[in-house]
Design brief:
Strand order of the largest sheet: 1-2-3-4-5-6
Helix content: 25-40%
Low-confidence stretches: none
Strand content: 25-35%
Distance between the termini: 20 Å
Mean pLDDT: 96
CATH topology: Metallo-beta-lactamase, Chain A
Shape: globular
Number of strands: 8
Radius of gyration: 14 Å
Order of helices and strands: EEEHEHHEHHEEE
Number of domains: 1
Number of helices: 5
CATH architecture: 4-Layer Sandwich
Largest sheet: 6 strands, mixed
CATH class: Alpha Beta
CATH superfamily: Ribonuclease Z/Hydroxyacylglutathione hydrolase-like
Structural class: alpha/beta
C-alpha cells in the first residue's frame, strides 16, 4: 500500500514528499531540504523505515524545490528526474534565488538523470505515477 510522508522544509516552507510502499522502495518528490537538520530528518526516516531511495522526482525546477537534490545525489547516488520543459528553470535556479529572496545561498545542482513529459509513467516498488 502506498504511504506518503510530508516534510515542510527550507525558509520558504516548501513541501517535500516521500512516497514508499511494502517493497521498501521509496521516492522523494521536490526535495527542498536546505538545512542540515532537514536533510538529517529525511535520512533518519529512510533508515528507521528501512527504505531504499530509488528516485528523486521534481515537479519543477524552482530553487526551493531543489535545495536537497545535491545531498540526495551525494548520499544516495540518486539523480534528479525532472520535466523536460523545466530544464531551463533548473539550470537558472541560482538566478531565480537571487531574484526572489535576494540572497546567494549554496545550491548544488547535480546532473539530471532523466527528463520526463506529460503522460509518462514514473514507477517504483509496486506503484505507478502518471505525469
Amino acid at each position: 500500500m502506498l504511504q506518503i510522508t510530508r516534510f515542510v522544509v527550507n525558509m520558504i516552507e516548501e513541501n517535500t514528499y516521500l512516497l514508499y510502499d511494502e517493497t521498501g522502495e521509496a521516492v522523494l518528490i521536490d526535495c527542498g531540504a536546505f538545512y542540515p537538520e532537514e536533510q538529517q530528518a529525511i535520512r533518519n526516516f529512510l533508515t528507521e523505515h528501512r527504505l531504499r531511495l530509488t528516485h528523486l522526482y521534481n515537479t519543477h525546477g524552482h530553487f526551493d524545490h531543489i535545495f536537497g537534490a545535491g545531498f540526495i545525489y551525494k548520499d544516495y547516488g540518486v539523480q534528479i528526474e525532472l520535466c523536460a520543459d523545466e530544464q531551463f528553470v533548473y539550470e537558472a535556479a541560482a538566478e531565480q534565488m537571487r531574484m526572489f529572496i535576494h540572497r546567494d545561498l549554496p545550491l548544488d545542482l547535480p546532473p539530471v538523470g532523466r527528463y520526463f513529459k506529460d503522460g509518462d509513467i514514473l514507477a517504483f516498488g509496486n506503484q505507478k505515477l502518471q505525469v
